[in-house]
# Entry
Amino acid sequence: MRLAPPTPRADTQTGTATEAEQEHQVRRTAQAILFRHLLVGDEENPADTFWSGISLDLTGALLGPANLIGCRISAADFTGATFTGHVWFDRARFGLDAVFTGVRFAGDASFSGARFDHDARFASVTFHGSAQFEKADFGGRAWFDEAEFRSRAVFTEVAFSGNASLNEAQFDGQADFRNARFARVGMFGGARFDDNANFNGAKFDVRAGFHGVRFTGAFTVFNGAMFARTDFEAAEFGSDTTFSEAQFTGDTSFVMTEFTRNVEFTQARFDSSVNFAGSRFDKFAVFDDAKFGGRARFHECQFGSFTNFVRARFAADVSFERTEFADRAGFVGTKFGGQARFAEANFADYSGFAGAQFDGDTIFDLVRFGGPIAFSADFVRPPRIRAVWVRLDVRERIEDSGWPPGTVIRETDERPHGVQVGRWGLLVHAP
# Structure
């Protein structure tokens, strides 16, 4: 079934505006007749007017408000069409490809409970009103690349059975992906979330791509989310962010990621390797009770405020090489099962290692402790200590900080390279 694009709007000065209005009325009538034949009804009240096996070609069509709740369509092509009012596709079923590329929804658009048996294309779509996809089922691939969501976007409990691509999508309003299921690849590369983003309980079974994504709403939440292979490289989190109880079962990258507000990974679990190299944490960074099953890299990170790894568990090697801790850093009760590397790390304020356990090799080469220290840790193997600087003129005493066994502080008139103030000593092995 076809409905041709509208003719160019008449010039009102030629006296033909009436023709445009007449065309509009004809098109509305044709739309109503056409859409009525797409409604299948239900078992108790089947629709006698239903046409089975219908494929629609509404390319470039100008359509008004539409109620297509429960409709059945074999294939549909709405490329470049415009819906001037609210439209409802709730519980609709598309048996073949559904193409909405470049469609403009001027009002609210609802696809709640809709089922797409094959591919669904929503690339470059503009949703001026709310976009509702709650419990929608995408059986094939789904494209939302460069889509614009200018109001609320709801994808709660959506099932993406094929690859889902939302690269460069723009979310101006709240984005809700709670309990969404990505059975294949879920890609959000370069997407922009300007309001709250909620991914609580979302599942990415194969791969999640958030490379270069920007989150700037009041909060961004991934609590309880499950990730396989994951890429947050070069992402920007401008809002308070939580990954509490999130599970990362595959290799995970947060390389060069920026957290400009608080971020929390409390009780998060990283079963494979995770890389935060070069990332920046401007506010609180909390990894309390997190578990790292594979190699963990935090080298060259910048922690600008309070940082906590209290009771964290590192089963394999972990690196904090050349990492800056500008404020308090807590490793109280942390367990290091593999090599723990702190070479060239800088602790500018309080650092706490009380009750920490180091089971593997521990490297503290060229480290600076510029604040009070609690270091009553348990070392299964003697740590490697070379040129460890300790500031002596700090508020609390350091004599009772529990230095590694067999070490002493040797006072010196020298200072660490690049440091101009303070009285410093060197932590060295006892003679």
The mean pLDDT is 89. The longest strand covers residues 203-209. Helices lie at 17-36.
